[in-house]
Amino acid sequence: MSKFARGVGKRKVTAAGLAISGIVISASVAPVTAHAAVPAFPDNITIFPDRDFVSIDGFSEHAGEQVTIEVQRPHVGLIGSATGTMASAASIAAGNPAIEVNHPGGLCWGAGGGLQVTPDIRAGDVVSVKFGGTVAADATALDIGVTGGALTTPTTLVIQGRLGSEVDPAFLEERIIQPALRDTEVARRDARAVPGAVVNAPKGGYSSGMEVADGIFTATYKFGSADTAAVAADGLYTVTSWQDQDPDGNTQGVTISEFGEVGGPGMGGCPAGAVQQGPVSPTGVVVHDEGGSTSVSWTPPKPTPGTAPILGYTVRAVDRLSKNGVQGETGVRVNDPDATSVTLPGSVEGKRVEVRSFGEAGESWPPALPGGDPAADSTPPTVTAKPAGGLYTADTQVTLTANEAGSEIYYTLDGSDPLEAGTTGPAAKLYTGPFELKASDGPRTVRFVAFDAAGNASQARLEKYTFGSAKEPGAPRPVTAQGSNASATVRWTAPEDPGTSPITGYEITATPASGAPVTATAGAGASSVLLTGLKNDTAYTVTVVAVNAVGKGASSTPVEVTPKAPAVDKLAITLAKWKSGDLRLEGTGSVPGASLTLRIGGPDGQVFASNVIVQPPAAGAVNGTWSLRLRTGPGTVTNPSPVHISSDKGGILEKVTLPNG
Length: 661
Description:
The protein is mainly beta. The chain contains two helices and 48 strands.
């Protein structure tokens, strides 16, 4: 079942102006037959084309398996893919997505060896779910979108958009996402409109309706006040359609378009979109050095779908050694995208031959290298920063390290990307040694990337450094203490503010009115502790403090507890009679609710009665009462004396005699 609200972007979009004309639903729009491969409930595919984001629900029979999500464009082919692991069966059963792509917490497009591009998902693109190379289901991105919205009266908001001919108007919903609506008469985070006349919302708070004609929808919302209408107008406008719907109302193959959202990578480290990417390098470079000249050949690359066309190639012979950070090079440019070879003048001894594609977006990176070149590896390096980002109280020296010897590291201190079109950005600096971040300069975002000797680029990384005073944790939240025999169980919730470093543990203190306090410690993840060594019938004040690397935090609000020794009830007999077929015992007990067990002969004898409950005392009485009368069973055939009576509250009566008669 589609979760329309989940994953909707948080950007607020200011409503644009909109010309409204009289529009009615067209009865001539033919319903759309559902795609044969659309998943069936509870499985689903939800496509957010404006953010190039895909969410997969259900498929619990494949929980924990490897899955591949692909985007195919008709007449083009594969334009995006990602491979990862499905969520656990428990997570799916709890209603969580099975897997998501291009959304925080999910996969990047290109994960698992897929196309290293974030596809620009458009209407007509087909998203498929594959297990073991077999397509389990797919869904098609539908042609829908909001084009604008405006307040036509102080209390009326009209939102307009488009829908393609393949969209069934019965499978359509416009929605305004605005958490601030919770504080209005709407009392929910969203408002919705479906095709039909303007009517009151099912849960009240506003009325809405939608008209559809000639590929245009017009959603009208009427609110109870101008203030509420203004709040709604500042929300995120979305329109949703789906390919199929079962008799229970579950929607399948869902497309959600979000007005004002933009595509591209949904989180750091994901590959750029096709239009932001430079060309791909060629492959199969072969070099023949003949002394007076050098022939270089290559295989033209297959362009990433959607990228700018390749216009030609550059072939360079680059000095392997550098002087003062400068390497000499010679080369040529071949202005033919179909070229496969060129001749360089002279020998390339002591040089590395690099072949790049070029186009309007720049040159490819990393360059293609000869297959026989010992530096021609394809594994990118990794790069790290020490210390990692965080809060620091003084000037901090940062060291950048790559795992491959001879790698060059470039970094920026202004938060800008050190990579641009596959090469270093304009603000990037070559790393030559540790650099110092001054506390007086304020927060700094350090972004860095490494290039190994073969030209492979690491994943660009960032660390954020802030400066200020070290801070202890806040106070643990509501603390409770429950007393028991010479002990107390203390429970708490972690502080909302952990301070400027992770919590390392807790200290628990129980302080009596006089005498030494009793203390205990607990680990960072603890939320309770059994505090022992207390004195019964003594009142203690209990507090809990959290501890981090800076020190002890604020104390919790004190709570009181008084340990008590377990009650031992006192039992007595008020009536004892026995005759064959009629046993009677009555008595008192000091602890109402206690359960008595009666045995023949002694503490190890046969049980002839159990769960005899001490009843609460009558008005004016001190003790509760209990009674037993048996006419059959053990103890009624022969006199069971002496009888042993025990209570689950500790009381005991031994050698009770039942007189005959």
